Amino acid sequence: MCNIKKNNTYIVKILSEGYEGEGVARVASYPVFIKNTILGEEVEALIVKVEKKLCFGKVLRILKESPERVEAICPIFNRCGGCSLMFMSYSHQLEFKRRQVESALKRIGKIENIDILPTIGMEEPFRYRNKVQIPVGETIGFFSKRSHDIVEVNSCIIQVEEGDKIIRVLKEWISKFNISHYDEALHIGDVR
Length: 192
Description:
Layout: E1 9-13, E2 16-17, E3 23-27, E4 30-34, E5 42-50, E6 55-64, H1 90-107, E7 141-143, E8 150-152, H2 161-176
Parallel strand pairs: 4-6
Antiparallel strand pairs: 1-5, 2-3, 3-4, 5-6, 7-8
């Protein structure tokens, strides 16, 4: 049984990285998943959720920062659910993705001793996403991760520039014609 308590803080070292880019530490042999941390970092973490076999934490302070940590270029990175690796250097993102393929082949496919080549990167790692869904509510933007809360967006550095134009035109159209937004609680509204 897990003896880690919610709202306790621990100093931990990030020992690995989970498939969504979160760091994984251990406290009393239990894995603790901590968003926006990188392999090798040492952090002070607040335990925010405790389950039977694992816990989730939140960074309070980074005590030893990875050289692979970068400032996210997106001003709403921590609120939007569109990308989860932007706090890592691009070279580390590519290596992270290579390790994910290797791990899946070993864990799921039971394939050992396979040489996974380096991930092929892009010359310019922005403006590559060519599909966009733009939810409309009280604001227009993107869903926050694992929720239906909409984070207002005017521009997204990972979607093609036409996506930014669509957002701008949609906002102008809704405003100009006084179109009602969809209300999830009441199930009413003209545009969702």
